Amino acid sequence: MKLIIVIDPGHGGSDLGAVGPTGLYESHVAWKIACMVADILMRYGIKIIFTRVGDVRVSLDKRIEIANSSKADYFVSIHINSANNPKTTKSKKIRLGESLS
């Protein structure tokens, strides 16, 4: 049975997400990262389903519907935080059941 992963590139369309100090949009960066991750995973025979394709806005309800109807083994949502300090190097990961704090 083929492994299925839903990749959710955060934000999109009119929802730009975080905006970096140089004007870079989170939605654009999330989409590019999602494509790179998908390319790598597909080389291993993993089926990829995106919650959005390109720079379009998809509601949270629709993203949930896509994830649930796909019967995916994993759901990966990609978001990028912004900071004005170029020395900021923190990252955050959240797993199901973990607190957001």
UniProtKB/TrEMBL annotation:
CDD domains: MurNAc-LAA (cd02696). Residues 5-87 form the MurNAc-LAA domain. Keywords: Hydrolase. InterPro entries: MurNAc-LAA_cat, N-acetylmuramoyl_amidase_3. This is N-acetylmuramoyl-L-alanine amidase. It comes from Alkaliphilus flagellatus.
